[in-house]
Amino acid sequence: MTKSAAATARVRIAAEQAATVHRIESLTARLADILDGSELTTNDDEHDPEGSTIAFERAQVTSLIGDARQELEDLEAALRRVGDGSYGVCEKCGRAINPERLDALPAARRCIDCA
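Above: the chain sequence. Below: its structure as tokens.
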């Protein structure tokens, strides 16, 4: 990987990290709103028609936060691969990952064929 390509990859990954951090912050605020709102309702989800909706929303947002945190870890790993020169190389077959794939998924570890 050339220095120019590595610099471009770092910029792309940093932009994706910033977007992911923003998404985590937004989802965390949404979860806090859900939890604050649920304090005003009963704890009897079984008989409360809104209870299952609140529980579903809470579970959904919690899952989305977990996904975003995993994405952040994947982006950190991608930065390490840029540093060691293995970024853009499929970890399964060893061929180059298509640049368009890396544009869409900067943390991609496999080429489209191996994915």
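DSSP finds three helices and no strands in the chain.
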